[in-house]
Amino acid sequence: MKILHVIPSISPTLGGPSEVALNIVSALRECGVNAEIVTTNYGGAKPMNVPLNQRVDYNFKTDREVSVPVWFFPYTSPSLKEYIFSWQMTNWLWKHIHNYQLLDNHYLFSYAPSCAANLARLKRIPYTVRTMGQLTPWSLAQKQLKKQVYTFLVERHNLNRAAAIHCTTSAEAENVRKFGIHKPTITLPLGANPPMPISDAKARLRQKYNIPADTPIILFLSRLHYKKRPELLLKSLVQLKNSGHCFHAIFAGSGESIYLADLQNLVSSLGIEQKVYFAGFTGGFDKDLLLQGSDLFVLPSFSENFGIAVAEALAAGLPIIITPGIQISSDVAAAKAGLVVPGEVEPLTEAISKLLSVPKLRQELGANAKRLAQTCYSWQPIAQNLASTYGAIISGSPLPQVTKLNESVMKSALI
Questions:
Q1: Which of 43, 166, 179, 239 is the most buried (most CB within 10 A)?
Q2: If you average pLDDT over residues 116-133, what whole number do you get?
Q3: How many Cβ atoms sit within 10 Å of the Cβ of residue 396?
Q4: Pairwise CA distance, residues 65 & 376, whole Å
Q5: pLDDT value at position 80?
Q6: Over the chain, what is the mean pLDDT?
Q7: Is the pLDDT assigned to residue 358 strictly greater than 90?
Q8: Superfamily name and number for 201-376
């Protein structure tokens, strides 16, 4: 099989979606599927420094030397960052799309997947769509008018003509139905790579950030965006400080410069400068060090269809605290791998206080977290199920019951 994955950008600064595309393609290739990526060089504040208009072996795991074949094309819409238009990608897709048996489109409301879907229909190439959590009520309410117009003109038609919609949870599949789309859905989770073992991670992390050896570290590892609600965590940290808790919080992730400045000002106004450190974007060894050296992970997002950062924390054996808007929260609660609390200051503060005060509970939740990740969020079985789905679509056969397979795997994790 020859499969083309289409995504607006795979810049590491954009977080989960980039990780998903790269890891899926890598795992598929290990399963014998000839998978490639086509994307733009959009990188947020500045373009990615990558070769353009040619296939390159893109290295995305600097500590593991993993690479996947990627076609990068220049984008030409700096004023419309969500759209990320690329005329050269359009031209390439028109000329080469027939060389692939199926397209796997990542994301909605953006040029690359929309263009690919239209061209695929013209060339009679089947395609699937990943909604990436963009059909949750919260997400649809953001820039609502723009999305309503785009849906009417483009997106609903693209979804209704897809061979299948890839959802990562049953809740995401339900969002697809509520949006009025009745194409077949496949429900497969995403994966998380366990970090490279660092035997003295806790000591090295504290040495790096000049944190006392006996101080627990709270980790926020995600893109710094108001959707992730770092402000909520900061307000909880004030209460923890006032109640006498000893801790240090590290916020690791990139974000818009104006928003980052607002967060820094909030930290100053709250008087917790000595308790908080903004580490910026981290990857490779530095990311593994954070995951293994911290004591608990907190992500109080409004909405996440899956939450790659959450899965990575689970894989590292970190006890986690998340909100119900993260759609794997039911898995986390059932596996007793963390605490799921309402997205409000008081319950979040209480949950963090509980884990800071009871090291034994952190250990129990962390062990359950690692077990859940190993059982349910491993890339290889996910890729194998996805390859079976691709094969069925290409041959015109009924889709395999991957939802039932996933449910049985989940049950085994909870035994």
A1: 166
A2: 95
A3: 8
A4: 25
A5: 55
A6: 91
A7: yes
A8: Glycogen Phosphorylase B; (3.40.50.2000)
The answer to whether 338 and 321 have CB atoms below 8 angstroms apart is yes
- Residue 169 sits at φ, ψ, to 5 deg, of -145, 165
Please check whether residue 5 is in contact with residue 36, taking contact to mean a CB–CB distance below 8 angstroms. yes
Q: 129 near 110, Cβ under 8 Å?
A: no
Is residue 411 scored above 50 in pLDDT?
A: no
**How many CB atoms lie under 10 A from the CB of residue 408?**
9
Q: Is the pLDDT of residue 413 over 90?
A: no
Three-state secondary structure readout of 119-147: HHHHCCCCEEEECCCCCCHHHHHCCHHHH
- Tell the CATH topology of 2-191+378-414: Rossmann fold (3.40.50)
Between 15 and 117, where is the model more confident?
A: 117
| Residue extent(s) of CATH 3.40.50.2000 domains in the chain | 2-191+378-414, 201-376
Residue 262 CB burial class (10 angstroms; 0-12, 13-18, ≥19): middle
CA distance 309 to 223: 9
Residue 407: the pLDDT is 47
Residue 210 is encoded by which pair of tokens?
Answer: 């000049």
Q: How many CB atoms lie within 10 A of CB 411?
A: 12
**pLDDT higher than threshold 90 for residue 82:** no
pTM, whole model, 2 decimals?
Answer: 0.85
The side-by-side arrangement of strands in the sheet containing 34-40 is 54-61, 66-73, 34-40, 2-6, 102-106, 127-130, 164-167, 185-187
What pLDDT was estimated at residue 64? 60
What is the Cα–Cα distance from 415 to 412, expressed in whole angstroms?
5
Smallest CA-to-CA distance from 249 within 268, 269, 226, 275 is with 275
